[in-house]
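@channel sequence for tomorrow's demo:
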Amino acid sequence: MVAVGAATATLRVAAAFQATLQQQLSQHVARATDGKILDAAVAAELAEFDDTLFFDRLQRATTNASFRPFQVVAAVMSLVGGGVALIATSGALLILQPLVLPFVAVACVPVWIMMVRNSRESYQMGYELSGLDRRRAYLRSLLIGRDEAKEIRAFELGLPLRTMYDDLYDTWLARQRAYLLNQRRRNLVGTALSSVAIGSTFGFLLLLFATHHIGLASATAVGYGITILRGRFQSILQGMSNLYECNLFLSDFDSFIGDSGGAAPGDSPPEDTADPLVEIFVDAVTFTYPGSVEPALRDVSLSLRPGQMVALVGENGSGKTTFAKLLAGLYSPTKGCVRFMAGDRTEISEAGARRSIAVLFQDFIRYELTVADNIALGSFHHRGDQNRLDRAADEAGVSDFASQYPSGLQTMVGRSFGGVEPSIGQWQRLAMARALFRDAPFIILDEPTASLDPKAEAQLFSSLRRLLDGRSVLIISHRFSTVRAADKIVVFEHGVITETGSHDELMRRQGKYAELYDLQASTYLDVPRGSYEHPQESATPPTENAQDERDNSTESACTADAAQANRHD
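structure tokens (generated this afternoon):
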């Protein structure tokens, strides 16, 4: 009795420690698995984010990483505790009546088969519904998102989106009901077979008692032991089943992590060790997005040299932004190659070149951090360089509005965390400052003035040559007042380069560029396209009436720039 009392007290103390240690260990495991997901997502190539299957796998990995580690820890703890109790109970039965042990083991076989099949179907259901879960989560984000709130209310989209959300949820619940129905059927069959086996065990025990092979006291003890042993067996089998189910999901998790094929954040060398990028050569590059049949770029060749400003023009979907992402090292060509050359004419890797490239995307991110952090993210290794930070803020015009903030550059921006909300144009200036802070020899600007007012745009481009002096610059813009200042203009059509040259050369060529230029200019001139007259060829005599000049002359103040750039000039 003293031994039993001591063992009971020890188990109670151990159980108290087990609960706290299990919770702590679960958190550590969850953090480790979540860190692996973040590392894999950051290391994945940009093309992966254009693949639906990648997002389905990411969804499954993220979902299971949130609770599967806890299940693994709980199952392991359960197996350890259940194993100790199983050994003790089996030892007692071996002494009293060893012949009942095979009966109990056989009784647990149907339960094990039932648990394994349930685990397999649970995994299959999670695999199949990952895409539906993503769509449901997306609709939910639309309904509760801050940026989406204004349009949802303006177009009264609350009810339609909620209906879509409910329909997807109904589909999910129907699939779960089918799974639970199958589970109940299997559980019923497994429990019935197990009960028959246990009944046979007790029948065998009664036979032993009736034939005087075991006494009443021993038979009672064995019967009690059979009940305990069955419970221990089922507890162990449940833990094994949970581990089996978790293994299915975690194998999918490991596959996702292993396929990332990239280095974790922090594994790349500091930016100061990057080779100086001088020239970029694009040689017969073809690129096709994952899941697409038609290539976005076909047999594209181009070179960018130091100090050169190159502009990409073309209609939407012509391949300009895709080409810029290839130059930024964000995509790898399907065919052909992009070579990054250092000053000594040696080729440097994409990873090394990426550290020498700064990009301002049209759909830039609004980081809800401090103004200083928004800028310093352009080159985080240099975030402590205050002079560099102030210079980038001044050059991009951030200092003009940040000086009015409560804490200047240390002011939090974005309303999600109680910060100041900049205008869209000010957000774009922050993005420009971030690109300038990187101080890279090659800068890509994708519609850099799309959100700026005319005055701010004029100020930016008046200083652009000075700010980017000595750097190679690639500009994507639909504003031809910006494009015409480039050293080289490249025209894209359906993923192919159709024209290359300066503004004057392309205007004389009367090709696609001239057509687009005339089309845009006509919206300002308010005259039919192609009807411009060179000033020296105009048959309309000068008039002193200002209104007549605005009506009849292409030399008016508001059209002087366009007239000077006329294709006949």
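heads up for whoever presents: The chain has 21 helices and ten strands.
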